[in-house]
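Reviewers of the previous submission asked for a worked example of the structure-prediction workflow described in the proposal, so we include one complete record here. The input consisted solely of the amino acid sequence. No template or homolog information was supplied to the procedure at any stage.
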Amino acid sequence: MRYALDGLRRRPRRTALAAIGIGLATALVIALLALSAGIEGSASRLAVASGVDLLATSANTSLTSGTFPPVPQAHRAPAEFTRADSNVASASPWLVNDLVFGNASLFAASNASAGGASIPPSWGPTGAGAVGWIPSDNAGLDTPALLVGTGFSRSGDPHYDNGSYRGPTGDETVLDQSLAAVLHVGPGSTVWVSPRSVPAAAGVHGWYENATAFRIVGLSGPFWLIPSALLGFFYLSELQTVDGGAAVQGDYASLVLVHLTDPTDPSHDQGVLRTAFPALNVLTLGNILGAVDSLVNVYRTFGTLVGAIGVVIAALFTSTVLLMSVDDRSQEIALLRAIGFRRATIVGYVFEESLWLSLLGLVVGAPLGLAIGYGLDALLVHLVAGLPNGFSFIQFDATVAASAFLEVGAIGVGAAVVPAARALTLPIAPELRAP
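From that input alone, the workflow returned the following structure tokens.
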């Protein structure tokens, strides 16, 4: 060990450069692995705390691609689910869609002159997500907290009126804070919504004529299910009407969120509901998290490839440094072999020096990886609007630490192979006679 450390002390600049190279590769791997662990861990925590024990979707739904074909007879789902399985505490049908939102300022500008001439260039309707639900059917689910305003004024979904869609409309909406900030609106303001986009300023006036006006009755916090989206919340039947026109083509939703009275064995309830509703795909929380994990695995694989490239480069660089060290001490090594040092001992010295060099790289890379990770987390939290409380893009755990140690060990061992072979093949007599 003393001989290996003495070799590092003799050439401080070369040692420092090698340690920095190894440290950069280590920091990169630590940051990338912490990123995938953070996203997966945050998604798991949010899902477990959500109150969603089962998720019922159309049989053709793909969670990984975000495709949600319609679930028919949405308003009947709460009663039918509880009738089919007595362990179902609540079943909430949700219609998830995209809408275009416009505020009163844009409406006034569109009416001020023909052809949209009075609309400032930076103004226009805002595309955002929309959730249609029955507000009173969300018992046990972690829905967005109402921060400002009174919220929806009526229980149930009056406009549905047992399938006639002739009941009174509330024309109410709750926006999340991020969408409200983009639209510069608050409780009591009016927003217009439509599924149609607006290609140019000249079409804004016509867009408003065909859009539906809603009064904002509250602002909510971020939403765990769609954490980064700008969202507006509506009564299910009213969003169906906006989406499908005056004559709603079927009572449909995108999914049904199920909260169980006793969630200890959700797979049993999954089987019961699948039997009762063969046209639906019923997923447990484990299935949902598995879909999340498959998405994270894409980033994890990318991070692994990038990290592997970094490890190879660091190992090649370290190997070059060690070869130079062996050549510089060729006479010493020849002398050690001449006085009886075994080949295994010489090889051990080279490997020791490589491992110590790798450990120095870990000392450099570990804090650098932590700094990069926390800096990346702060940047992403700032850039991604509407993240729920407690969401973190970065998570440092035992797996990340173990991966860093394994990487350093791989660099140390891999980098020493060629220099050790070089040390063993040095000709003893010529080296000792060399000036």
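The chain has two domains: 2-46+295-433, 52-262. We consider this example representative of the routine output the project will generate in years two and three.
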